[in-house]
């Protein structure tokens, strides 16, 4: 038993010495290729075994012939181990280079394509993560392109919408100044109307900028859904009567919601005004509110005839109007973007779908 313990001690000391030297070499070469690291690891394993074996042989006072035989066997094992480590390292390094090139391609704006061949489990997991990241980047690029297109359309349309009333105001002001206005009262009323329209556009731009900047401050309070809807219907009533549109508010459940009353009134007002303007005379705009499994749902249904399916994803984009017309009824394309921003600030969501004869805008808010 004592001899066995001594043999184990000598073998441990020899292997430990080789292991410490190997750890030092690995630290010095830690920035080199994986082939070098694997070769060092294999070399450390063989050297540790060799050192332990020689130490034990020396302690046992073996003959020179026996020591030569043991050394030859260990040397052959070392050659095979080092060759295997080099081959494995070269294979892993080649797969890593292929993966690096594939990652560089989607980093430069392309799409990641996993390299052919059978990689290791770790490289396969890295490939899956890179593929998922590539998909997210593609989606982000697509959103960025859509936002850039919306911003360009918004700038172009806002410039036109502001320039048109300014030109009219200038012409009417010059006519009044020169005494050429046949009906100065009508001119003044028209100027006031144009100023109010411009003020509304500037107000929408300011509201949208606050939403995009994340500086929209909410003051939520617990209010009745019935009161919120009733105020919105009362505000949109004059426009509906002017355009000959029936405004219906039925199926309103008296459920409480915790929202910013002023901002949510703006949401419903924008939806109702948009629906009334898009609905022909003698048409109907209906507002309903009810509780569902997903929260509290407010819906505005109009008679616009529906929205093309390809345009449905863009309805809430900034600057979208649904047509290329730039007449005042078309608006600046900000109302629905403001609706989505305010609703999302309330942790809700805004959606639109086509129904028979028109479309339905739905706002879902968290239930109290």
UniProtKB/TrEMBL annotation:
Residues 157-368 form the Histidine kinase domain. PROSITE patterns: HIS_KIN. It is found in: Cell membrane. This is histidine kinase. Gene3D superfamilies: 1.10.287.130, Histidine kinase-like ATPase, C-terminal domain. It holds the Pfam family HATPase_c. CDD domains: HATPase (cd00075), HisKA (cd00082).
